[in-house]
Amino acid sequence: MSALRNYTLRVWRQKNPKDKGAFAKYKATNISPDMSLLEMLDVINDRLIHDGKEPIAFESDCREGICGACSIVINGIPHGKERGTTACQLHMRHFASGETITLEPWRAKAFPMVKDLVVDRDAFERIQQAGGYVSVNTGSAPDAHSILVHKDDSDKAFDAAACIGCGACVAACKNASASLFVAAKISQLAHLPQGDPERKNRAKSMIMQMDKEGFGSCANTLECEAVCPKEISTRVIAEMNWEFIRASVD
Amino acid sequence: MAVKGNQSPDVFHRELGKIMWNDCGMARTESSLKRALEEIPKLRESFWNEVRVPGEVDELNPTLEKALRVADFLEFSQLVCQDALERQESCGGHFRQEYQTEDGEAKRDDANFCHVAAWEHQGEGQKPKRHQEELEFKEIALAQRSYK
Ligand code: FES
Questions:
Q1: Contact (CB<8Å) A52/B62
Q2: Which of A129, A240, A244, B64 is most exposed by smallest CB count within 10 Å?
Q3: What is the pTM of this model?
Q4: How would you list the strands of the sheet with A73-74, edge to edge?
């Protein structure tokens, strides 16, 4: 086993939405490099509870990079500096012993603060509900190849479908734009025959909902693509714009 | 939250996990299950005396969420062990080491255990009541399964 490490953590603590919030410092000692960042927080929280203090609130569920629950800005970068990695998959071996690690929540107007590192991402759900679905009853799974989809399209749909809806794109964007998320959902269905009947309505409704939630506009900075743990390409944003124009002309 | 201990719910969760893994894992025996049935109530008691849940009830409180789940696990694991003890045969993922064929396969006892069982809660501290529903097979004959 590799040597245990020590860190200083600077963590954003905010009791509730009304509280002003501030950074607090914690010593993380005897941390195994094989732990994930969240496992390290579990250890810290156990100690905090033991000492009668309130543990650091953060979100997680699957802890294997597929659910999108974990959402921490690590040293200024959503999900940390490792590419294509969620916070739950980020291991402490990527941090040198003695390092100071800063942990903050996603910050965006459309993601209201809940507590510490937890923000409310319901806005994404409402955007999904505005059109991110296929409403025909598709019954049970059809035979393979009964609906032919071009390989190129199925690849593109699949790439877009990799989005886990974590919101890192919003947190990274200087405009807090949700374009990458919304575009991934629109693109995924736009490439498939099942998504075709509702395609126009979908593009319009989802984009309208996105604007209503208070997300900013895309300025093509491409920060979102750089931090996306699923490495969704900004190609989908171009496709979203195309879908929107298409829906508006006829 | 009224309990003023100093351990996080995770500590009890891990402890319970160890008991279940060792004594009620895929291979279990009468004695391991009996041991678990002695240890779980002890752990449960120390949970209710020593757990600590900081924070507020009306705010987001992940420790409270965890504590409520661990409280459930502590009740449920006891029932799992009870049920495993009662089913004196091997069957599917329930491998009682006492009941195995010569070459180490699960040995069912269809004469006595060809049924599904459900337990009914009889109140705190009371042994739950076991209900059973016989399984009838019309089209196939029951046989030993071998994965070899
Ligand atoms: S906890 Fe599910 S993606 Fe990180």
A1: no
A2: A129
A3: 0.87
A4: A22-31, A5-13, A100-104, A73-74, A77-78
